[in-house]
Design a protein that fits this description.
Strand content: under 5%
Pfam families: Gal-3-0_sulfotr (PF06990)
Family: Belongs to the galactose-3-O-sulfotransferase family.
Subcellular location: Golgi apparatus membrane
Oligomer: single chain
Number of strands: 5
Keywords: Glycoprotein, Golgi apparatus, Membrane, Signal-anchor, Transferase, Transmembrane, Transmembrane helix
Number of helices: 15
CATH class of the largest domain: Alpha Beta
Order of helices and strands: HHEHEEHEHHHHEHHHHHHH
Helix content: 40-55%
Shape: globular
CATH architecture of the largest domain: 3-Layer(aba) Sandwich
Strand order of the largest sheet: 2-3-1-4-5
Number of domains: 2
Bound molecules: 2-acetamido-2-deoxy-beta-D-glucopyranose
Membrane topology: Single-pass type II membrane protein
């Protein structure tokens, strides 16, 4: 009897919470449809002047370039298009650290950890933005819009992004977001992913809430149409446009090589690109796809697949130009330095389950209703001279943004609701 009552009660509470949740979604939608636009965008300058950005650098502690070959000086104006589920959080940490170290000016989001994704990027989404403001680094999740981004950055800014094999990306997004994508809720059975891929059209609807997470997510992130048919000539045109916008495209699959090219392009040091893999998922939660399902996933994400193949070719041409042997040496050196840092900073020699993370400062954001994202425990007795660098290298995106002064109230509200409803 009382058990029954308890059940009833908890279901009422659940519904109440869902109501609040929906209200929250409505609130977000309201914000999305009413981005506080600057008055008159047509009268804005097309790009911010180089002189203004160089002013930002006046007190930059740029290390003197010691190498003989290097006439270059470190590049500080950077646009990183942070794609979803591509190891981009690890790159973000590298950029945050570099920016902090050199006192660069970040264009940060307000109230949350992205620029009102999935609505297209607008300058008005930048924290404390005023017409004509210039920044050094833009690096948080957004739906890319080149013309808008260009207004924030000097003309010499380096545009960078990162891609990942579309099948792995699709699998990852499916896992990470399925509870946030209502159209997956009615897929029955153990292996929802396989069921979906076997007949996507019977579940998918282009207009359904958050459906973009499940189709050509890369194309969507780049501000492109993610529903183009495989034979649509606009796919090739869009890819060609992107190849003109981006100076360097990194690959999750060739992450170390990518960072070496990044270092080379930006004239940075190996120290600048040291990293611990952040936001990785527990191995057991990764679905291994059969070759048949892999083929279906590629077909379903054809635009992303073409994008990936295009840049894969240009990537390896760059590695060739850089020198294969030189690349091998550099990668080995990076690995050596990374494991040195791991030895210095991390307890138990590697990533651990979220439940085992003792210090909440290092607890990464988890998907709805799960705790599959791994994190680290920092060693207790770190040599004081390494303490700060260890802390920074281990700090997940949300906590790092907080420390950079972003309030994140919407993200936190969402996080609280997500835990209240599903745990
Ligand atoms: C919009 O333009 C009007 C008139 O020029 C000005 O008074 C107002 O402050 C502007 N608003 C914003 C948000 O820039
Ligand atoms: C924008 O500003 C320009 C010049 O300042 C003005 O001529 C134009 O009418 C304005 N447009 C709108 C939509 O307010
Ligand atoms: C540069 O910054 C440091 C502290 O970060 C400060 O002590 C120094 O006075 C600054 N130099 C200039 C030229 O502003
Ligand atoms: C994850 O699983 C794959 C295949 O099941 C295995 O090859 C790999 O070594 C595992 N990685 C870790 C870190 O356990
Ligand atoms: C990417 O390029 C490398 C080197 O040419 C090649 O081995 C690999 O198969 C390519 N990957 C894809 C998915 O095309």
């Amino acid at each position: 009897m009382s058990g029954l009552k308890g059940n009833k009660c908890s279901s009422v509470v659940r519904r109440l919470i869902l109501l609040v949740l929906l209200t929250n979604i409505l609130l977000v939608l309201y914000c999305l449809t009413n981005p506080r636009q600057g008055n008159n965008s047509s009268s804005r300058r097309a790009t911010c002047p180089l002189s203004a950005a160089q002013l930002l650098q006046k007190n930059v502690s740029v290390p003197p370039q010691s190498t003989k070959s290097g006439e270059c000086s470190p590049k500080v104006n950077i646009m990183f298009m942070k794609t979803h589920k591509t190891a981009s959080s690890t790159v973000l940490n590298i950029l945050f650290r570099f920016g902090e170290k050199h006192k660069l000016k970040f264009a940060l989001p307000k109230g949350r950890n992205d620029f009102f994704y999935p609505s297209p990027f607008r300058c008005s989404q930048v924290k404390d933005y005023r017409l004509g403001d210039c920044f050094n680094i833009v690096c948080n999740h957004m739906r890319f819009d080149h013309q808008e981004v260009a207004k924030l950055l000097p003309a010499d800014a380096v545009y960078i992004t990162i891609l990942r094999d579309p099948v792995a990306l699709f699998e990852s997004a499916f896992h990470y977001y399925h509870r946030a994508v209502p159209l997956t809720w009615r897929i029955d059975g153990e292996d929802k992913l396989a069921r979906f891929l076997n007949s996507p059209q019977s579940f998918y609807s282009a207009n359904a809430f958050n459906s973009f997470y499940l189709k050509n997510l890369l194309f969507f992130d780049f501000g492109l149409d993610n529903h183009l048919e495989a034979d649509d000539p606009r796919i090739a045109r869009d890819i060609n446009d992107l190849s003109k916008r981006f100076h360097l495209v990194l690959f999750a699959e060739y992450f170390e090589e990518s960072l070496i090219l990044l270092k080379d392009t930006l004239c940075w040091t190996t120290e600048d690109i040291l990293y611990f893999k952040l936001n990785a998922r527990r191995n057991s939660s990764v679905s291994r796809l059969t070759p048949e399902l892999r083929a279906k996933a590629l077909q379903w994400n054809e635009a992303d697949w073409r994008l990936y193949q295009h840049f894969n070719v240009t990537f390896w041409a760059r590695v060739e130009a850089y020198g294969r042997e030189r690349m091998k040496r550099e990668v080995n050196e990076l690995r050596r330095r990374n494991s040195e840092m791991m030895e210095i900073c991390i307890e138990e020699g590697g990533a651990v389950e979220a439940q085992k993370i003792q210090d909440r400062r290092f607890l990464p954001w988890q998907p709805i209703g799960e705790s599959s994202i791994l994190g680290y425990n920092m060693k207790k007795n770190i040599d004081p001279k390494f303490r700060t660098i260890c802390e920074k290298m281990l700090t997940p995106e949300i906590q790092y943004l907080s420390s950079l002064g972003v309030s994140l109230w919407l993200t936190r509200l969402w996080g609280w609701l997500k835990d209240a409803v599903w745990i």
